[in-house]
Amino acid sequence: MKKIFLASLLSLGLIGLLSSLNAYELNGNLAVKWTGFKTEKKVPVSGTFNEIKADIKSSDNLSTFLKSSMVTIQTSSLESKNPVRNENITSTLFSLVTAKEIKGTITKVNESKKELTLKITMNEVAQSIPMKYEMANGNIVAKGNIDILDFEMKNSFMAFSKKCAAFHQNKSFSKVDIEFTIPYK
To answer: How far is Cα 21 from Cα 65, in angstroms, rounded to an integer?
Structure first.
């Protein structure tokens, strides 16, 4: 009887250990990348944000792990590796009090299609953004795009376009590619 009891405890312990090995847990800092476009040739300009707060709960289930994410980005922390560009973007596009933060959460995950929906709130306007994701080398990388104008930022975008006209050969695009990377273990 003792052998059966010990075998049961051992198997339960192994099952618990094996299930915890499949758990998803944030393993580092969430990274965000944006890519805007300028000139008729659509020259890409990329950057990130230095102040990103991410709260993601550990889970044995990938969908649950992803949907637990709550991210807040301080728009004043925009970083393009060009101080003049940083100032041009933050002083125009993100000049509204209501555009000082970008909030994001994942609302849907389709694991079989490797798709998710990211709800972004910017300028007090929420939009659902479809994204494709890949998992490799301990990272979940999702890519999609937004249109700044969908966030009721037409006046800010026009001010940005005007301020950067000489740098952009009078052509700025309101669509921006977005990407985030969640390192997990």
So the answer is: 14
